[in-house]
Amino acid sequence: MDNLNQTTYTTPDRGFLEALRKWSGFVGIMTIITGALTCLGAIGTFGISLIPGIIQIILGVKLRNAKTSIDRYLEGDAREINGIFESLGSYMKLQGILIIVGLVMAVIGIIIAVVVGIGFMTQFNSYY
After folding, report:
1. What's the rounded Cα separation, in Å, for the pair 18 and 32?
2. Pick from 27-31, 32-36, 50-54, 124-128: least confident
3. Could you tell me which of 73, 97, 79, 76 has the C-alpha nearest to residue 24?
4. Is 97 exposed, middle or buried (0-12, 13-18, 19+ CB in 10 A)?
5. Three-state SS for 84?
6. Taken in order 102, 107, 108, 109, is the CA torsion positive or negative?
7. Are 34 and 63 a contacting pair, CB within 8 Å?
8. d(CA 47, CA 41)
9. Could you tell me which residues come within 8 angstroms of residue 90 by beta carbon, excluding any fewer than 6 positions away?
10. CA atoms within 13 A on the CB side of 7
11. pTM attached to this predicted model
């Protein structure tokens, strides 16, 4: 009879890791470039877009760290499997926080737009 409580491990598929390495490297570089351009745009906007640009650069670095860990794992360092998950996990967590903040800001913006719209409509109707 099989022991259901015993943990079994399998090694990740090399092809999957190579594709993940390629895409995390590419997306990481593009995210860093986009973040740098966003920071450069902050010069004309009194620094408003500096924080999102810095966050994008951090996200890009997390993906590049994941690519580096995948490279080392594929070269034979089995300990790097934790580095892969650590980098990708922190990337996903930060990206998730940004999504939540963006959704909250969108809801607040919609509420403000509706309130201002109702105020204008009320003022417009009372004028005529």
Report:
1. 21
2. 124-128
3. 73
4. exposed
5. helix
6. positive
7. no
8. 8
9. 62
10. 1
11. 0.75
